[in-house]
Fold this protein.
Amino acid sequence: MSASFVEHVEMTGHIVDSLLLPKVLDAILSRGGQYHIETLRLGEKQDDPSFVRIEVRAASPQQLEAILAEVHPHGAVPSQAADCVAVAADVGGAFPDGFYCSTNFRTQLKLGGEWIDVEDQEMDCGILVDPEGGAARCVPMTSVRVGDRIVVGRTGTRVLPPESEMRKHELFEFMASPVSSERPKAVSVREIAHAMRKTRAAGEKVLAVLGPAVVHTGGSELVARLVRDGLINVLFAGNALATHDMEQAFYGTSLGVSLDQGIPTHEGHEHHLRTINTIRRIGGIRAAVEQGKLSSGIMYECVKSSTPFVLAGSIRDDGPLPEVVTDSLVAQDAMRRLLPGVGFCLMVATTLHSIAVGNLLPAAVKVACVDINPATVTKLMDRGSTQTVGIVSDAEPFIRALVAELDRTRGA
Amino acid sequence: MSASFVEHVEMTGHIVDSLLLPKVLDAILSRGGQYHIETLRLGEKQDDPSFVRIEVRAASPQQLEAILAEVHPHGAVPSQAADCVAVAADVGGAFPDGFYCSTNFRTQLKLGGEWIDVEDQEMDCGILVDPEGGAARCVPMTSVRVGDRIVVGRTGTRVLPPESEMRKHELFEFMASPVSSERPKAVSVREIAHAMRKTRAAGEKVLAVLGPAVVHTGGSELVARLVRDGLINVLFAGNALATHDMEQAFYGTSLGVSLDQGIPTHEGHEHHLRTINTIRRIGGIRAAVEQGKLSSGIMYECVKSSTPFVLAGSIRDDGPLPEVVTDSLVAQDAMRRLLPGVGFCLMVATTLHSIAVGNLLPAAVKVACVDINPATVTKLMDRGSTQTVGIVSDAEPFIRALVAELDRTRGA
Amino acid sequence: MSASFVEHVEMTGHIVDSLLLPKVLDAILSRGGQYHIETLRLGEKQDDPSFVRIEVRAASPQQLEAILAEVHPHGAVPSQAADCVAVAADVGGAFPDGFYCSTNFRTQLKLGGEWIDVEDQEMDCGILVDPEGGAARCVPMTSVRVGDRIVVGRTGTRVLPPESEMRKHELFEFMASPVSSERPKAVSVREIAHAMRKTRAAGEKVLAVLGPAVVHTGGSELVARLVRDGLINVLFAGNALATHDMEQAFYGTSLGVSLDQGIPTHEGHEHHLRTINTIRRIGGIRAAVEQGKLSSGIMYECVKSSTPFVLAGSIRDDGPLPEVVTDSLVAQDAMRRLLPGVGFCLMVATTLHSIAVGNLLPAAVKVACVDINPATVTKLMDRGSTQTVGIVSDAEPFIRALVAELDRTRGA
Amino acid sequence: MSASFVEHVEMTGHIVDSLLLPKVLDAILSRGGQYHIETLRLGEKQDDPSFVRIEVRAASPQQLEAILAEVHPHGAVPSQAADCVAVAADVGGAFPDGFYCSTNFRTQLKLGGEWIDVEDQEMDCGILVDPEGGAARCVPMTSVRVGDRIVVGRTGTRVLPPESEMRKHELFEFMASPVSSERPKAVSVREIAHAMRKTRAAGEKVLAVLGPAVVHTGGSELVARLVRDGLINVLFAGNALATHDMEQAFYGTSLGVSLDQGIPTHEGHEHHLRTINTIRRIGGIRAAVEQGKLSSGIMYECVKSSTPFVLAGSIRDDGPLPEVVTDSLVAQDAMRRLLPGVGFCLMVATTLHSIAVGNLLPAAVKVACVDINPATVTKLMDRGSTQTVGIVSDAEPFIRALVAELDRTRGA
């Protein structure tokens, strides 16, 4: 191979023990390139940052480009970065060709020779540069208007891989561990309880993303307590969770199964539909609480405590309830508006909503995803939600243990 | 117990070997009632219909009502049925209190002393009676307008439990078999191929409901062939299936994973977003085909063969593609419009869309649901889709075997 | 079809609402036969037994035989039963050709014109008739000696299908319910706790069959308490459960994962092997307790309370521990010896041992099988363990809730 | 922290891009130590080996020991290694205290100043040093006799981490990918076919480890062909696989389910027991083939082609067949004897046997594990079988595709 197309890239920080340098070297080889380490100043002790300057060689401009694209999200930037390039959108609701595709990691742009932070960081978006310059933010393609200035290419962009809090003691173990149910559960419970307490103590919000199995397995009252106690501050769910929660309040059943006796009740299969119909007749969940017709459960506590919620619609919904946002784009925007201030996210028993919220969250927000199905946890982590800790467990018993742990540590 | 509240119910047909009579007797006991079999004319041979008249006794009117509600969907109707009762809807977008809640079984109303069939049979709906009388159909609650005449109570309604095609040889085995992957797969393949051929021969349509794992596992070309060969006639899917199918056409990857080599490609995670953006810039899938920019895959074949499809939106969508129906109610209606004429439905690798379509289909349409996750199949069958055969298998290898079987039996 | 081969069969009891008659009629049709109901005396009320006499016709002797074989386990016996036929075993360790294959339902033989109960009822065995007559018991094929009198054919045998305790309120629901995690868990916990208390109150034993995930998920101390409190009276497990339980006692880890911190410890992967080696050096678990070297955990409590246990070997064992029975036939016999007096069986997180024990238990012993993997529960129920209630849940949180419920109801 | 306990370790090779150096640095930090990189000669290009000498400091001798234990399997050895230490076993069937616990990676001992290879490499064993010196091999604890010289401690031992064949293009992707069914299956099929062909071409053996679901799903004939064609050269399985394979040959069923029609046959539940009894009466599988009584299926082809097999017993076995090795230690030894010469191992649909064989195989033997249950694959990889590629797919359709691919590439 004659590898005569060359670029120099640089990296700074804990690049050896954080895996970033090895990943970059591996990526160069993987894409068929060659490297020459021109400078390596290794932090002798673990607190010292390191610096490396690498010459990358490739056999063609395409190959070089492929390598640079691959190493970019690991924080390797060309030695002499120019300003970023933004072009005017030529089509509404779509990015220009060659648009820069965002990750959920903190990202910076070089504008006027200065590196500035991109706001509203979200994966799979484009970056809109403020017309006056000096600011930039992530935007989904549907919100692009003709003339918007959108970043194209990687020039003048850099990703700051997350400060790995895991580095100290569990990085490799975590990476090496496939998703398994055979882990000590009390530890996970304790860690989530701790994260929830810490988040609240820091004045940040705990977001819960819940599927209907939370209610089916009998967890409604437990979650209702967490809302009442201010330990859940934002709720994202669907029509089913809210419906079955209120079905329990009205009929004592969930999808017709008695939560006291565990067996289907007569006409039980109709309960959820009658619940929806009743709420539609009343005019909504809030109206039902105000009129005294709904007096227990998760949705009741949300209304009483003014805990904001988004019920996002789906095609499997019956009804739906009046508060359900049936348009998926509107629902995504409603969720985006509630994300600022969220410091921790607990997802339980929902694939659809977990992945949807995982798409919206910046990497800095830690997530715990609890599902009895390992495939759900795998799917979430497969899609790049690297900040997620996956726990394979059963909804109600897990939440029960979590509530007990939060009780135990109250005031601690 | 003094059981002095009494009603008489009757049943006709293959009520013993079809399990209907035992189910009714069990239901009476289960709800705490008592029965007295007043008349039983048992078909002596298996081709003879039977007739039974049962006295049902309960301790309270509520208990009696509970029993009658329970036995109703098994085809037990009061001996002297009056005309059904319909009242005018008092609130738009909701049924009157006490509305009759539909099943997906064939249902009849007594109107003017005559039993008539309910049209557009669909579970979890109400029944709208034509203002001029003489006709009735299922309607979802969202479509109710003030003044619509909606059936309330069970009076004058009867359910005709499905003609069980399974009765002859597999009824109990089927019921007794939990959902398991440990079944001979070639048999399932053969039966689905047979059902597809038979459906087409009868001039009916085969509906495919597909999740993105069909593409991720490498099944795009196989499904494309089935569309091209006229063996799939309607397609219901989401943004992800269509996106990854076209991502494969454009980049050879699915969610960035090379379908030739099985490993992630550089920048591959961006491919699906670039695919969506490209299609949005072009103006849609149809435009992409017409302009020669899309020339292979499932969506291409649908456009070329004018096979109708509905792409229903969800909150986990990126983009979405221009053809995606982002409002869930509009998407449900779009699917409803394509259901008439469907004789067989093949669902592969999607929980969301399978349950959504299961909600819409009348019980007469046979369904095969293939998913590698037994919980998906269980969930579908748990929700009352009794016409469904669940098969726990892997998308691409299963479809590959299905295509081979359809090839083998071509012209047979 | 000319169906000129005829037999008459009779059934007595709750044959309609228990499903037995419909099953028999269906079986006749399924195998291509015809039936004529000659006599049907239906219990008019639910407490009355019914009686039916059915003429069965088939086109060939083989078909007739097939039908009679199929209806036999549903309690349908020929009208004029002769004495059973037993022949001398001609080969050691094997049954004679045509041997009667046992179920786990209560079974009777006609000997000298009298129906007698078969002892040691166990599925997939033969029936050995006492040389002096008057008694019979199930035996596995490996224990057959030349000359043993073994029952052949179905003549003079009858099965008494189980008194269905479920009949009253949940028969159909239970049958119709596929194995799902989406059930209210507190109800299952309550029912198992109730069954354990009731079993103990009746002077019967509770058998626990446990897999190592009980320890991995953190449940060792909880199970140890149940042993100490006399709520578990027999333990069946394997080398792994005992090893990891003692690994926790010695090192605080399970398979090297710290049960306090949830992360792998240094050299942790060696802990289980060092545990086994230590116990082998000491001479066994009992010796370790006696010498004060093992002082907590499940195995410790078993030794202290003289709770009998069988540790059955498997090919995936390291070591194994001295108490492990490495020969599978010897282990099966060791388990058989501890079964008399067992009134309830709780299986948690083990496919291998659950199925093994399911094979040995008579149908009269109720079983609750808890596993996070629905396939395990399905597999157990697929193999005919009809007395089993399957619960899809996570080991430690489920056991934690069970212990809390048993505490709550202590003395109640 | 005053960290005054010090050791120097060295590493040589592709220690940066293979992750070994970062892992070692991370391990030092994780266990609370400090490092000082005294020498780092980095291979400037990717073909050059690197060398590093690291000063490790810890606060206590215990901590230092913990760190050295942790970095040992990554190939970090003390700068001045002494000869290994072996002591005489004081107890039969157990190692001396402090025994060196083996991995499945290639390992060397320093004996008389020379590094020699350990033979029979197997994880979770001890190392027996030849009495005359100059040779050493792994031994399980049960085979230790009093006086055997067994290595204790890590002094004079070193692990050579595997030559990573994955490094070039997939290392990180592979590590980052949780076990998922959503992968292109044709690629996995192609790679396994290629590995089988390559293994045979190299004169090495292909080992198949199969569970009964291979037969239940209909794969018997396909596997039989692979045996007949010499593409499977050793078979490890259990009583169930062999029984159901022969049940199919005798009755056309598997666990009583017709493989042609997919439904249970009359008396089908007895077929497997009658099969076992028949074979026991004949005297074994080989006798059945020789007497012409068994003439198709996997076991038939094994006998005809003299393909060696081990049928290992388990406590869930009925019968078992005469060839089944009921003692687990004897079965493990029987498997060990057939491992030399095995170059590739295909595991399908068995958790028990897969993990058992994974315990025995050295890391140099590549393994593909196919199971429809992601938890099985996860469990195998969780136990350190790093050479394993896990594929979540369905047994029969996957094997069908594999046979088709092997046909396609015959002679290629």
In short: The CA atoms of residues 282 and 407 of chain D lie 36 Å apart.
